[in-house]
Amino acid sequence: MSDSNVKAIILAAGMGTRLRPYTNDKPKCLVEVNGKSLLDSQLDILRSASISNITVIGGYKGDMLKDKQVELIVNDKYDKTNMVFSLFCAEEKLNGECLITYGDIVYSNKILAQLLQSTDDIAVVIDKNWQTYWESRFPSPLDDAETLKFTDNNLITEIGNKANSLSEINGQYIGLMKFSDKGLQQLKHLYRNLCSKGSCMGKPIKDAYMTDLIQEAINAGYPVKAVPVFSDWIEVDSVSDLQSETTTQRHTNIMLETIK
Length: 260
Known about the structure:
The chain has 260 residues and is an alpha/beta fold. It has helices spanning 38-48, 83-87, 109-116, 130-137, 181-197, 210-219, 239-243, 245-258; strands spanning 6-12, 32-33, 36-37, 53-58, 71-74, 97-102, 105-107, 122-127, 146-150, 156-162, 172-179, 225-229, 233-235. Helices cover 30% and strands 25% of the residues.
């Protein structure tokens, strides 16, 4: 599997407050599972697919990311902004074919391969086996899960709202997506329009999540396609995630598969 023409942008500016004390002295993406940081794990996965054009958007303790052999862009307003603002700190990188991924996840090379095979302009990885994972992480899966609906041909119609019932959830967004050059031009056009309007899904632009931007793209009529997967990834958002046996075991399996 080789996709040397694809670039990757990793969003890793946040303070990781739910991971304290592990983030007292390091950014969230440098928290370790099985002795390996989330960022290094993800870089190994990307490089196993010959993706070497990698930009990290840092923020909190961003200087610690300088030795990772990636291009580092720092969102110096990291403590007052959210994902969408961080992404557009790297607006000059938004061209060609590009992966956008969160810094607090690790996914298998199988998931990456499946995403890279997508020919859609905006492709978003969705875990259809989300409920099992959420039940291992939260007292009730609805405590944290968001709405996500897509049609029989994988066209996403709704994403990112508070879910009141399991029927509103066809899967969960994992924080990994791919854009063609056309998709990125659509995204930049949409972002400029939202900045002119002054809000994104009712929030100030600086507070908007990526799911807000994706929903705005859907509302604007841009086709957003789901890439359905089943497990094979982790998110480390809290101390309980970090200490979970599920996290440890999934990470072990992902990394073993990567080095085969």
